[in-house]
Design goal:
The complex is a heterotrimer.
Chain A (H helix, E strand, L loop, with lengths): L4 E7 L7 E5 L5 E8 L4 E9 L6 E3 L2 E11 L6 E12 L2 E3 L3 E7 L9 E2 L3 E11 L6 E10 L11 E7 L3 E7 L3 E3 L3 E11 L3 E14 L6 E14 L7 E7 L9 E4 L3 E13 L4 E11 L13
Parallel strand pairs in A: 3-12, 15-22
Antiparallel strand pairs in A: 1-4, 2-3, 4-9, 5-8, 6-7, 6-11, 10-11, 11-12, 13-14, 14-16, 16-19, 17-18, 17-21, 20-21, 21-22
Chain B lengths: L1 H23 L3 H13 L8 H27 L7 H4 L6 H17 L5 H11 L6 H14 L18 H21 L9 H10 L1 H12 L6 H19 L2 H14 L2 H6 L1 H9 L7 H17 L12 H15 L5 H18 L4 H17 L10 H17 L2 H6 L3 H5 L4 H18 L6 H10 L1 H4 L1
Helix pairs in contact in B: 1-2, 1-3, 2-5, 3-5, 5-6, 5-7, 6-8, 7-8, 7-10, 8-10, 8-11, 10-12, 11-12, 11-14, 12-15, 14-16, 15-17, 16-17, 17-18, 17-19, 19-22
Chain C lengths: L13 H5 L4
Classes of the chains: A mainly beta, B mainly alpha, C mainly alpha.
Chain lengths: 301, 457, 22
């Protein structure tokens, strides 16, 4: 009883390759090898027979590289946006342990790995040994990051908002696009204050939109609450903002990924008065993953 | 309040204990977490200023321990990467800024980043705390922590090390923000609690004054810099805040904290500011304080006296005249005490100028006339003040014959009630006996007997 | 440098600084 062999997937360069954390569906985090778009995914598949003198008949062994989007509310449907297959072995009988090399050259990985509230985007290798009764399958997850390099001209966000005769502020954030380890530098200038403010904070809100049309599911999550002011200012007061994004668990902005989902980020400026009334202004910002300076260049053709 | 304070102190002691334990085990991140929890007690709105101060003192004591630990680590080469950034991850602003100040000072002492940049950053980032009480204490912490690291040289010794100009900017900004918060305190809460708030504000005045003390401790601030940079900036805040309590205290603070030579060099600016103060400010006390200081300065052993190009008596005389003119509600005793201070100045600094003293006496007489003072009761404040004034020339000249030459001394003496008049007259005669003052002419004898006629007839 | 970045703030007038809260 039980599987007659164990399948191992060993990736090339795993001792030197960086790993990255991925959130699993149950909320736990695990580290997986990190790949980028265009990188070759190669390695070795080991088949280890349970019984050393046993025989294992199979109808073929293959390995697939899959990029897939799962919508939790639509479990039956998996949306594969990348699917590549390599045959490792033709049908036959294994009488001893076997090892097979594989290589997916310069694989396109257009999107970043993502685990969210209602959607998951993953990349994995799947080895299948086809057998008469039940196939032996082994999967190996990898993590993919997408890098962006925005032009130097990254306009700031500056706006005046208010409630007539009550509260007027001018807020400014130094950029509209921030990388994940960036700093939000800004200020709030009070033009009119006729309410008793208790404190002010900035929230970083992630909005995940899974699916499309009337069935789309919106999930908002407040990832950060950062107090920027304690007490009541008067007119003319200028309050500095300096919020380090590296302190929070953020992903890049993802827009209409494979027409299946989006992940957007908002800065929510919230003022709370003495009677716990809340005044807020939400502003979308773009988050992106910037390349580390030390990263190895992507292998070219 | 006691119960609330006890609860807060218990939390602080526990968190401080945990913090130290973590530091002993070199677990800095955990220690910072406990420090942050401890500092979180300073977010309270429940404590009175007095109780808050107690809490603040205990916490800042414990923070000193953290500072020393970090200094030690840095100096041993075990510097924590990006610590200045790390402490800014704290979600609540009060713990964040206290930690930032502590780490910032360590960085300054270990020359990690530009000293002037850190100082500038710290004083600017404190803007985030607009709550008057919490803001005052936070900025006081900033001032105390940076006490020994403010650059005090005319030019930068190294790149980005800063100069005294940076220190002046730092302290002046901190002072103006603290004064603003202190003044704003009066508007917090219900009008029926105004008196209590006023009292609480008085208890906190030292926090604001410490800024001026810090400025006075900068050795490279000379008269020129004081006149052109420091005093104008301070006076600008004082005059424009229009708050009597702040004006009264800060003006007094300026007099006490800065050297007398500086006051001599900036007399007109200072007196001009006095004229612009809130009518509720007891300007006479400020003037008297200044006059007395300068008199003492002029008569001190080793002093060069008042420079001849500074007409000190004229300045003060004019200023006092302006005050009297602009304050129709000035009480007679206040008028007299002002004139007494001026008399003291004249007698101390310009001993030979009898005309100065006579002028003061004349002004006093006409002032009392304008106020319609006809009869001065024996036990009144006015009587006491006038008696003080009249005794000054006796004490400082020790020569009754000079008194006889003052045309306005006798008319002023005659305003007093009989018992007081006798007392002053007897004081004069006793002074003559003690000093062996001989009256050489019959004319002078007549004048003397006329002066002390209340004893004769 | 990132840890001390700030935007230039507008200077508050003395009138505003010391006026009672509106």
């Amino acid at each position: 009883f039980g599987p007659s062999a164990e399948i191992e997937i060993l990736l090339d360069g795993s001792d030197t390759r960086k790993t990255a954390e991925l959130k699993l569906e149950d909320g736990r985090k695990e580290r997986f090898p990190l790949y980028y778009d265009g990188e070759t995914v190669s390695g070795k598949v080991n088949v280890v027979l349970k019984k050393s003198n046993g025989k294992l008949e199979h109808q073929g062994i293959k390995i697939e590289f899959i990029g897939q989007i799962d919508l939790y509310f639509d479990r039956g449907n998996r949306h594969e946006f990348v699917s590549m297959v390599r045959e490792l072995a033709r049908p036959g009988i294994l009488t001893q342990n076997a090892s097979y090399n594989f290589e997916f050259v310069n694989v396109e990985k257009p999107y970043e790995s993502y685990t969210g509230s209602n959607v998951k985007l993953r990349y994995y290798l799947r080895v299948s040994m086809v057998k008469r009764l039940s196939d032996l399958v082994k999967e190996q997850e990898i993590c993919v990051h997408t890098l962006a390099q925005y032009p130097d001209l990254n306009s700031s966000i500056k706006m005046e908002v208010g409630i007539e005769d009550c509260l007027h502020i001018e807020f400014e954030y130094n950029k509209s696009k921030y990388h994940l380890k960036d700093v939000i530098v800004g200020k709030i200038y009070f033009l009119l204050v006729r309410i008793k403010i208790k404190h002010m904070e900035i929230q970083v809100i992630k909005r995940e939109i899974a699916g499309s049309g009337p069935n789309a599911l919106n999930e908002n999550e407040t990832l950060a609450k950062f107090e920027i002011m304690d007490g009541a200012p008067v007119r003319g007061e200028s309050i500095p903002i300096r919020l380090f994004l590296s302190g929070y668990d953020l992903t890049p902005t993802m827009r209409d990924i494979n027409k299946k989902f989006s992940v957007k980020y908002y800065l929510n400026l919230v003022l709370v008065d003495e009677e716990e009334r809340r005044y807020f202004k939400q502003q979308e910002v773009t988050l992106f993953r910037k390349a580390d300076k030390k990263r190895r260049p992507i292998a070219s053709n | 309040q006691e119960k609330l304070l006890d609860e807060a102190l218990s939390v602080v002691k526990l968190q401080a204990f945990q913090m130290k334990r973590c530091l002993d085990k070199a677990k800095l991140m955990d220690a910072l977490k406990h420090a942050s929890n401890m500092l979180g007690e300073l977010r309270t709105s429940l404590l009175s200023p007095k109780s808050y101060y107690e809490l603040y003192m205990l916490i800042t004591d414990e923070m000193r321990h953290l500072e020393l630990y970090l200094l030690d680590e840095f100096q041993k080469g075990r510097r924590v990467q990006d610590l200045y950034e790390l402490v800014q991850y704290a979600g609540n602003i009060i713990p964040r800024l206290y930690l930032l100040i502590t780490v910032g000072v360590v960085y300054i002492k270990c020359s990690e980043i530009s000293r002037k940049d850190i100082l500038k950053d710290l004083v600017e980032m404190c803007r985030g705390v607009q709550h008057p009480l919490r803001g005052l204490f936070l900025r006081n912490y900033l001032l105390q922590c940076t006490k020994n690291v403010l650059p005090d040289c005319v030019e930068e010794e190294q790149e980005d090390s800063g100069s005294v100009s940076d220190s002046i900017d730092f302290v002046l900004l901190n002072f103006s923000e603290m004064n603003k918060l202190w003044v704003r305190m009066q508007h917090q809460g219900h009008t029926r609690e105004r008196d209590r708030r006023e009292q609480e504000r008085r208890e906190l005045k030292l926090l604001v004054g410490t800024n001026l003390v810090r400025l006075s401790q900068l050795d490279t601030i000379d008269v020129q810099r004081y006149r052109s940079v420091v005093l104008p900036a301070v006076l600008e805040q004082v005059v424009n805040c229009r708050d009597a309590l702040s004006q009264d205290y800060v003006m007094e603070c300026i007099i006490q904290v800065f050297p007398d030579e500086y006051h001599l060099a900036t007399l007109q600016d200072f007196l001009q500011a006095c004229a612009e103060l809130n009518p509720a400010v007891p300007v006479k006390n400020i003037l008297i304080s200044l006059i007395n200081r300068l008199s003492a300065f002029a008569t001190r052993d080793g002093s060069n006296g008042i420079p001849s190009d500074i007409p000190l008596f004229d300045f003060f005389s004019e200023q006092i005249a302006k005050i009297i003119e602009n304050k129709p509600d000035l009480s007679p005793e206040d008028l007299v005490s002002l004139q007494a201070a001026l008399t003291g100045l004249a007698l101390g600094v310009y001993k030979d100028r009898e005309d100065y003293v006579d002028k003061v006496l004349e002004t006093t007489n006409s002032g009392l006339d304008k106020l319609g003072v006809e009869h001065i009761n024996d036990h009144s404040n006015l009587s006491r003040e006038l008696m003080k004034l009249l005794k000054l020339p006796i004490d400082l000249w020790n020569d009754a014959l000079v008194l006889l030459r003052l045309r306005h001394y006798s008319p002023l003496l005659q305003r007093l009630d009989s018992p007081t008049k006798k007392s002053v007259s007897a004081y004069l005669l006793q002074n003559m006996l003690n000093n062996g003052t001989l009256v050489p002419s019959s004319e002078q004898v007549e004048q003397l007997l006329d002066l002390v006629r209340c004893l004769v007839a | 440098a990132a840890s001390i970045q700030r935007l230039q703030h507008k200077r508050q007038t003395l009138e505003d600084a010391y006026s009672p809260p509106a």
